[in-house]
Specification:
binds cobalt (II) ion; Aminopeptidase; Elongation Factor Tu (Ef-tu), domain 3; binds zinc ion; 339 residues; 9 helices; alpha+beta
């Protein structure tokens, strides 16, 4: 538990917007190298592929390393920086937030005066990095510099808040399970893929899936909850266990695959819930459309305030997700399915 929390702190602290996953990949690679696994490779788009196990069928697991962020687009005479979003950044909650750019420069987001709430838009916002003028600003943050929220990870008892929990928590789940199974005899070739550019369109997963050509895909990612005041009518609650994906915008889990996941969870008394997410998608959406089609699903970690600076998870859900992932890749049920 303590080791997991330290790993969450370590991975969430890294600056890694889509397209800039080098640093997070190096940290994950270091963790993997401790295990002396032979098969480690990287794709041209930066995904890290770690393969363990043997057997005829291949399972591709995917957790994305990238996080949402911003990108500098324009600097005015006085040195104020305009920016665009990388992934689903909501304009609400941006005012006053701190930004860290990939080159280490910090700044804060503020807004032009807004007289009526309906005038509030992304275009009104700017980043102040404390530069005196355009030349000084452009030296520190040239146009085209990527950045992310600058917000630390805080442990609130059994729950944890941080920026980039989406999807560093999926990476943590995969690393923890990898550590448990890497020296066991597995009935499948299991590809642990730490993907890139999920937040801008599942790009690292799409290309990795083409390369691997798996028989099954499982993404490890966050999902929303319906348990906050006047929240979405969604039957997923923080702390109620791993969420087995039924459907989102990018994927319908094949009913046979869903049934096996439910059966395995029940056999092992793993706390689970069925998830229908009416917005968003995950890497599984890209994986399942590969070649002739790959039966795929998602084991989701319920998360409040997704895509904000403080995304909240519950450690019980993390444990349940790890347990179900370990179960499905170490038992033969999945491989016995006929499609
Ligand atoms: Co996301
Ligand atoms: Zn995600």
């Amino acid at each position: 538990m303590k080791g997991t929390i330290n790993l969450i702190k370590k991975l969430t602290s890294i600056v890694g917007p889509s397209g800039y996953e080098d640093e997070i990949r190096e940290v994950i690679k270091k963790e993997v190298k401790k295990l002396k696994i032979k098969h480690i490779e990287e794709t041209p788009l930066g995904a890290l592929i770690v393969k363990v196990g043997s057997g005829k069928k291949k399972i591709m697991l995917a957790g994305h390393m990238d996080e949402i962020g911003i990108l500098s687009t324009h600097i005015d005479k006085k040195g104020f920086i305009r920016f665009a979003n990388i992934g689903g950044v909501s304009k609400y909650g941006l005012i006053g937030s701190r930004i860290k750019f990939v080159n280490g420069v910090s700044g804060l987001i503020s807004t032009e005066p807004i007289k009526k709430p309906e005038q509030f838009s992304f275009e009104k916002l700017y980043i102040d990095i404390g530069a005196k003028n355009k030349t000084a600003a452009a030296k520190l943050v040239p146009v085209g510099t990527f950045g992310v929220f600058d917000k630390e990870c805080v442990v609130l008892g059994n729950r944890i808040i941080s920026k980039a929990m989406d999807d560093r928590i999926g990476c943590v789940v995969m690393l923890n399970v990898l550590k448990k199974v890497y020296n066991k005899k597995l009935p499948y070739q299991v590809y642990f893929v730490f993907t890139t550019q999920e937040e801008v369109g599942l790009r690292g997963a799409k290309t990795s899936a083409f390369k691997i050509d798996p028989d099954f895909g499982i993404a490890l990612d966050v999902t929303g909850t319906g348990d906050t005041p006047e929240g979405y009518k969604m039957a997923v609650n923080l702390g109620d266990g791993v969420a087995i994906k039924v459907k989102d915008r990018s994927l319908i889990t094949h009913p046979k695959l869903k049934d096996v996941c439910v059966k395995l969870a029940e056999e092992k008394n793993i706390k689970y819930q069925l998830e229908i997410l009416e917005w968003g998608g995950t890497d599984a959406g890209a994986i399942h459309l590969t070649r002739a089609g790959i039966p795929s699903t998602v084991f989701s970690i319920p998360t409040r305030y997704i895509h904000s600076q403080s995304e909240m998870i519950d450690m019980d859900d993390v444990k349940a997700t790890e347990a179900l992932l370990e179960k499905i890749i170490t038992t033969k049920d999945l491989g016995n399915l006929k499609f």
